[in-house]
Amino acid sequence: MTVAVAESGSPSDALVQVRDLRTRLGAKLIFDGLELAVPRGSVTAIMGPSGTGKTTLLRHLTGQLRPDAGSVRVDGEEVTTLSRRALFGLRERIGYLFQNSALLTDFSVFENVAFPLRQHARLPEELLRNIVLTKLQAVGLRGAARLMPSELSGGMARRVALARAIVFDPMLILYDEPFVGLDPIALNQVLRLIRTLNRTLGITSILVAHELAAIRQVADSVCLIANGKLVAQGAPDELVHQDSPWTRQFFGGDADGPVPFHYPAPDYATELGFAGARP
Amino acid sequence: MNANLRRNWLVQGIASVGDCGLFFVAVLGALPKSLRYWRETCRQVWFVGAMSLVIVMTCGLFVGMVMALQLYYTLSIFGGTAALGTVVALSLFRELGPVITALLVAGRAGTAVTAEIGLMRATDQLDAMGMMAVDPLAYVASPRFLAGLIAMPLLASVFNAMGIFGGHLVGVTWLGLDNGTFWGNMTSTVSLHKDILDGLYKSIVFGGVVSLIAVFQGYTAPPTSEGVAYSTTRTVVFSSIVILAFDFVMTAFMT
Amino acid sequence: MNPRPSYAIGTGLFILLGFAALAYLATQTTSVANIHSGDSYTVKARFQNIGQLKARAPVKIAGVRIGDVQSIRLEPQRMDALVVLSIDKQYNDIPDDSSAAIFTSGLLGDQYVGIEPGGSPTFLKSGDELVLTQSAMSIENLIGKFMVNGGPKSSSASSAPASGDAPASGKP
C-alpha cells in the first residue's frame, strides 16, 4: 500500500482539492487560507483541536455551506459556484455519515436505506429490495431490516447510516466523527467497514475523528488543521514522530502549547486590580 | 438601556415576521416539487386531519350544546326561541367553526409538527435529506403546509355538523323546541354563499396560517431541547394571535 | 409491497367524512336543496301582500306543519304575489274550498302560511289554487288603520298646529 501524500499527488488525480479557503462564522474566523488535497482512492483523516471547523470543512465539501472565499473542487466540479440542481447531482455521488447517524425516525431500517433509491431511481420493487438487502448484508444488519431506528443501539444506527450512505455506490464518503460513543467492538466493526469499503470498492474516504489508534489502522494520510490552516500532513506514523510544535502537542496530548490552555483574556493581575494599585 | 433593548426587541420581531414571509415564499416555491412526494402529503393529511377528528368532533358537539343552552335563555327573554336554530347555525358557520377548529388544530397538530421538525433539525435529519439530494423544503415543509390547507376546512365542516347536531339535541330534544321550527328557520336564513362558503374560506386561510407558523417554528428552532420546547410554545401563541387577528380582518372584508 | 396502507385508508376516510359533513351543511341547513321526506304535491295561492314571507317557510294547518313554501313570484298582469305551496302527500284530504292566510309566529318570529279548512266534500289536487286568501298583517297597516279610525280627534289635533303655524309664518 503506497502512502499517498498531497504534496506528491498532482492536482489532476486529487478527488478533492481545496484552495485558499476562507470562512468566517459570526465573529469567529474558521478558515484562513486552508489548502487541502485528497487523492482518489485514499483514506484521509482530518484531525485538529475541537472547534477548528472540521465539520465545517465537510459542509464546505458538500456545498451545504458556502465559504467566504476560496475554491473547493470535488471531482473536478467547483462546489462553491454550483447551481442547486448540479449540487444535488453531485451529492448523489457523495455519501455522508452524520455524527448522530441522522436516520429518519418515521421509517424502518429497510425504508431508511431504501429512501435515496425511492427518491431518485424508479426501480422495480424486487430490484430495490435486493439492493437494500445487499447493503444491509454488507454492514451485517440484514436481520434488522424491520426494526425502527429507536430500537437500534448507537453502533447499529451508525452502520445503518453507513448502509444508507453507500446505497448509490458513491465515489466519496465523508465520515463525521464515526467513532464517537462506540464501544470497542462497535468501533472495530465500523473501522473494518471503512477499510473494506475503501479497499474493495475503491471509495475515497475522508474522516474527521480524534481517535488516533483507530486512525492509525485505517488512514493513509492525516491532515492536521489548526488556526484555520493546514499545519501538518503525512502518514499517521510519520506525523506522530514529526518534530513540530503542533504535532508534538496534538499527538503528545500536552495541555499547553500552540493551542493555549488559557482562553484569550486580559492580563490576570490587571483584571484582579493589582496592576492599578502598584505605584 | 431600556429603550435600546426595546428597539432591539421590535427590530427582531419585525425581522422574524420577514423571515416567516421569506419562508412562506420558499415553501410555495417548493410546492411543485413536493407534488412528487404526494404520499408524504397524504400521510400528513392523515396526521393533521384524521388524528384531530376525535377532539374536533367532541368540541364541536359541546360548543353546539352550550350555544343552544345559552342562546335559548337569551332568546327567551325576547320571545324569539324560534330563531334558535338560525342563531346557532350562523354563529357556528361564520365564526366559531373556523376559529375554534383552527385553535384546536394549532394546539394538537401544530405543536406536534413544530416539535417533529425541530427534532429532525436537531438530529441532522434535515441535513441528511439534503445530503441525499432530497430538498427538505419539498419533502418536509411543503407537504405539511399543504396538509393543513386541505385538512382545516374539512375539520371545520365536521365541527359545524357536530355543532348543529349538539344544538339540535339541546334545543329540540331537551328543551322541547319544535323540530320543524328549528330547521325551518335555519334553512330559510342560512345562505350557502354568504355563510357556509365564507366560513370555508376563513378556515382555508387559517389552515395555511397555522401550518405555516408550525413548520416555520420547527424549521428555525434552535437544535436543543429548550429550543424545541420554546418553539412549540411559540407556535401556539403566534397561531392563536394570528388566527384571531385574521378572523377580524376577514370578517370585516366579508360582511 | 404497499407502503403503509393503514394511513392511506385513514386519510381517505377522513377526506370523505369531511366532504360528507360539508355536503350535509350545504344541503340540510340552507335552502339550496329542498328536503322532502316523501312525495308532495303543489297548490297555488295568490296574495295581495305577502309581508315577510320567504321561500321554505312552513305551511300549517291548525299549527301542524304539513309542507312548505316552494316559490314566491310576482304575477305581472294582476300585480299580486303567486305563492306555490308544496304539501306533503299524506295530507291529501284538504277540502278544496279551504282558505290560506299569512300569519306571524310570535311577535318577532318568521311568517308562515296557515290553511283554514273549509267544508267541501272534494279535496285539493296538485296544481289547484286556493281562492280565498288573506294577506299578511303588517304592523304599519294596523297602526295606519288605527290612526284613521281614531278619526276626528286626531285629525283636529293635527290641523290645530298647522293653523297656528300659518299666521306665525305669515307675520314678517
Task: Outline the secondary-structure elements.
The complex is a heterotrimer of chains A (279), B (255) and C (172).
Chain A: E1 14-25, E2 28-39, E3 43-47, H1 54-61, E4 69-74, E5 77-78, H2 84-91, E6 94-97, H3 109-120, H4 125-138, H5 154-165, E7 172-176, H6 184-201, E8 204-208, H7 212-218, E9 221-226, E10 229-234, H8 236-241, H9 245-252, H10 268-272, H11 274-277
Parallel strand pairs in A: 3-8, 3-9, 6-7, 7-8
Antiparallel strand pairs in A: 1-2, 1-4, 4-5, 9-10
Chain B: H1 2-34, H2 38-48, H3 53-77, H4 84-122, H5 125-131, H6 136-174, H7 179-189, H8 192-219, H9 225-254
Chain C: H1 5-28, E1 40-47, E2 58-61, E3 64-75, E4 80-88, E5 99-104, E6 111-116, E7 129-130, E8 132-134, H2 139-149, H3 152-170
Parallel strand pairs in C: 1-7, 2-6, 5-8
Antiparallel strand pairs in C: 1-4, 2-3, 3-4, 5-6
Word description of this protein:
- The complex is a heterotrimer of chains A (279), B (255) and C (172).
- Chain A is 37% helix and 23% strand.
- Chain A is of the alpha/beta class.
- Chain A has a domain of 172 residues: Rossmann fold (3-Layer(aba) Sandwich).
- In chain A, the strands form two sheets. Chain A has a six-stranded mixed beta sheet, with helices on both faces. A four-stranded antiparallel beta sheet of chain A has the order 2-1-4-5, covered by helices on one side.
- In chain A, strand 1 and strand 2 form a beta hairpin.
- The N terminus of chain A is likely disordered.
- With 255 residues, chain B is mainly α.
- Chain B has one domain.
- Chain B is 87% helix and 0% strand.
- Chain B is built from nine helices and no strands.
- The model of chain B has no long low-confidence stretch (mean pLDDT 90).
- Chain C has a domain of 100 residues.
- The C terminus of chain C is likely disordered.
- Chain C is α/β, with parallel strands linked by helices and 172 residues long.
- Chain C is extended and about 75 Å long.
- The longest helix of chain C is centred in the N-terminal third of the chain and has 24 residues.
- In chain C, 31% of the residues lie in helices and 29% in strands.
- Chain C has three helices and eight strands; from the N terminus they run H-E-E-E-E-E-E-E-E-H-H.
- Chains in contact: A-B, B-C.
What are the main properties of this structure?
heterotrimer, A: 279 residues, alpha/beta, 4-stranded antiparallel beta sheet, C: 172 residues, 8-stranded mixed beta sheet, 8 strands, disordered C terminus
